[in-house]
Design a protein that fits this description.
CATH topology of the largest domain: hpI Integrase, Chain A
Number of helices: 17
Order of helices and strands: EEEHHHHHHHHHHEEEEEHHHHHHH
Shape: elongated
Distance between the termini: 58 Å
Structural class: mainly alpha
Helix content: 40-55%
Length: about 375
């Protein structure tokens, strides 16, 4: 469904006689509705209130502005979704567009599409979320989609102020996805071979999103200054920009992690500066691995062999990284900037900064906890699998 904007209309003002009482000024215009364009009119006032047409014209200015605003009002969630996906969703990062679009098609529309906006209440949404056959992290994303839709509706004054607004507060338990502790991460790594060993280790040691890891090229890893400069992300095979402005900040590179990456670079045939870090041999290095395929063929089977019963997705390693940073007692600002989150408390944003050496030290403590004691390394792993 597309929403087109009519060209600017000035409307018309006429004087109309009444059977009883003084004549009145009538303002007429056309309005776009879901059923098409319809004629509208309103009484501006009597000729006693506005003695000249010019005075009545001045009184219609607000009406004229309103008539030229988008006057179509969605009545169902399906219509709201159509408006949101055309007007607001394209302005978001490609990864967000893909995730939101998928959840809208798979979960939101089948349940809520035909319902009126007034039917969508917090309690009903909470009960629906509880019943979805999804992991808690995925439920939280579906909730965020619903919240985004009704924020869009409220910005256009299409919805009451109460739908969905309490979901974020009352469904906090959906925000606690599975995380892996150090021993579990080591156990998983011991069951993996490269490139998946290095891929998972990089995710666990940096908290990078899988779209960012797969979007990395060797030229992005600055070994001289021990930094990673991210400039692209890959979602559903599409190369796009970074998720947020904060995501573009340089990522620290611990020296032990740098050695892990150098070891992998020495063994992969795709090691030129403009090659992908994790180029797929099946695609002759022209494309990186597909994240879902890596999970299905290597990471999750490895978790089963390691005796891990938790649900593992690529975002598990990002959550685990944050948990390890907090467990190590790192400063809140360092954690926030290590994850490159855009939002934090204003006092932290204004008065403190997570410096690169501090973030690298924090990352180093995570790397060391994963590598020692008796943790698998790329060298020992290759020797064991030879």
């Amino acid at each position: 469904m597309r929403f087109t904007r009519a060209r600017y209309q000035r409307g018309s003002l006429i004087r109309e006689k009444r059977k009883v009482g003084p004549d009145v000024w009538i303002f007429r215009w056309r309005e776009q509705t879901s059923q098409g364009r319809v004629k509208r009119k309103v009484v501006v006032g009597t000729v006693e209130q506005y003695r000249s047409k010019a005075a009545a014209q001045n009184a219609t200015e607000t009406l004229r502005i309103d008539a030229n605003r988008e006057t179509w009002t969605p009545s169902t969630v399906e219509q709201l979704v159509a408006h949101y996906t055309e007007r607001e969703l394209p302005s978001k990062a490609h990864s967000t567009q893909g995730v939101y679009g998928s959840y809208i098609r798979t979960w939101v529309l089948p349940c809520w599409g035909n319902r009126s906006l007034s039917e969508v209440k917090t309690v009903a949404v909470e009960e629906w979320l509880k019943g979805l056959p999804l992991a808690n992290g995925s439920k939280a994303k579906v909730r965020n989609v619903m919240h985004a839709l009704f924020n869009h509706a409220m910005r256009h004054e299409w919805a009451e102020k109460n739908p969905i607004t309490l979901v974020r507060q009352s469904a906090k338990r959906l925000r606690t996805p599975d995380v892996l502790d150090v021993d579990e991460t080591k156990a998983l790594l011991s069951e993996l071979k490269d490139p998946f060993w290095t891929m998972v280790f990089l995710a666990a040691a940096t908290g990078l999103r899988v779209s960012e890891i797969l979007g990395m090229k060797w030229q992005d890893v600055i070994f001289d200054t021990l930094e990673i400069h991210l400039s692209r992300a890959i979602v559903d095979g599409v190369v796009g920009g970074m998720k947020t402005e904060a995501s573009r900040k340089p990522v620290p590179l611990d020296s032990a992690l740098a050695e892990v990456l150098l070891d992998w670079r020495a063994r992969t045939p795709y090691n030129r500066d403009d090659d992908w870090l994790f180029a797929s041999p099946e695609k002759l290095g022209r494309q990186p691995y597909w994240p879902d395929s890596a999970l299905r063929k290597a990471v999750r089977p490895g978790a089963v062999r390691a005796g891990i019963v938790k649900h593992i997705g690529w975002h598990t390693f990002r959550h685990s990284f944050a948990t390890l940073l907090k467990a190590n007692g790192e400063d809140v600002k360092v954690v926030q900037e290590s994850l490159r989150h855009a939002n934090s408390r204003i006092t932290l944003d204004v008065y403190t900064q997570g410096l690169m050496p501090t973030k690298r030290q924090a990352q180093g403590r995570v790397v060391k906890s994963l590598l020692a004691p008796n943790g698998p390394t790329p060298a020992t792993l290759v020797a064991a699998s030879a």
